[in-house]
Amino acid sequence: MDLQLKNKTALVTGASAGIGKGIARMLAREGVDVAICSRRPEAIAAAATEISAETGRKIVGIPADLTKDKDARSFVAKSHEALGRVDIMVNNAGSSPGGVLEHLSEADWAQSLQLKFMGYVRCLRYVLPLMVRQGGGRVVNLIGNDGVKPSYWEIAPGAANAAGQNLTLSLAGQYGRHGISFCAVNPGPVRTERWAGLVAAMSRDMKLPYEEADKLAPAAIPMGRIAEVEECANLVTMLASPLMHMVNGTMIEIDGGQEKALMDRLRDRK
Predict the structure, then answer these.
(1) CA 11, CA 203: separation in Å to the nearest integer?
(2) What is the distance between the alpha carbons of residues 56 and 189, in angstroms, rounded to a whole number?
(3) What angle do CA 62, 66, 68 make, to 5 degrees?
(4) Which of 33, 66, 177, 231 could be joined to 58 by an S-S link, Cβ 3.0–4.6 Å?
């Protein structure tokens, strides 16, 4: 199937590694020119060079800390200048610390909301006027299934995710008349560079050996494993296609049918 993405343009945040980098690579393979950002200048430059060499597409790496409004504004402006237009916006930047209430500090809560939620708000504040002027666009927000499947160990991610999901659905209602459609993708556990750190935090909070903590998420997933980066990237790339433009105000989980309540029960037994 031709996804009709050739010569489109996209912005992808949090793309120096993990899911964001995978999405940028997959879009470029489909013929999209992509601007990417992260807080690490060397890492984002390396990612841009790598993806461009592999795909032959224009990949623009821009350092940006999306907890800062001026950086979000600069990222969007520089991307627009380099690419000429913004057909697709993929908000992905940000992580949120897992843990039970007793282990979450004020800084943890601030980190969760400032980047994982407000980073999306800041980018959209500057991208949407561009899309309105050009007559349309597509927004895909990578959020997370913690917002729709509550878990006591993931209350900080859950709060940020629920806010992001509400934002996505609300803006779909506002901007549809401008030809701009929105979709939220909600991954469960994904095998990225961060996965080992998340398992270590579960091991700490649940007082489990690391090897046992690493089995908790797969045990709560009917398919028996966590997702791979490429699987998330495939879904986002498909949703970014003009063929999917009518998929507006929708949330899609990519978690193998994970049962968050089961995961909590498994922890409680330990």
Answers:
(1) 36
(2) 31
(3) 110
(4) 33
Residues 27, 239: Cα–Cα separation, whole Å: 11
Identify the CA nearest to 192 among candidates 238, 142, 156.
142
Q: What distance in Å separates the CA atoms of residue 175 and residue 193, rounded to the nearest whole number?
A: 35
pTM over 0.90: yes
The pLDDT tens digits along the chain (270 residues) read 899 999 999 999 999 999 999 999 999 999 999 999 999 999 999 999 999 999 999 999 999 999 999 999 999 999 999 999 999 999 998 778 878 898 899 999 998 899 889 999 999 999 999 999 999 999 999 999 999 888 887 899 999 999 999 999 999 999 999 999 999 999 998 988 777 777 777 777 777 788 777 777 788 889 999 999 999 999 999 999 999 999 999 999 999 998 776 566 556 655
Length of the chain: 270
Q: What's the rounded Cα separation, in Å, for the pair 69 and 64?
A: 10
Given a contact cutoff of 8 angstroms between Cβ atoms, the answer to whether 144 and 157 are in contact is yes
Per-residue exposure over 149-163, b if at least 16 CB sit within 10 Å of its own CB, e if not: bbbebbbbbbbbbbb
Of residues 195, 259, 204, the one with CA closest to residue 227? 195
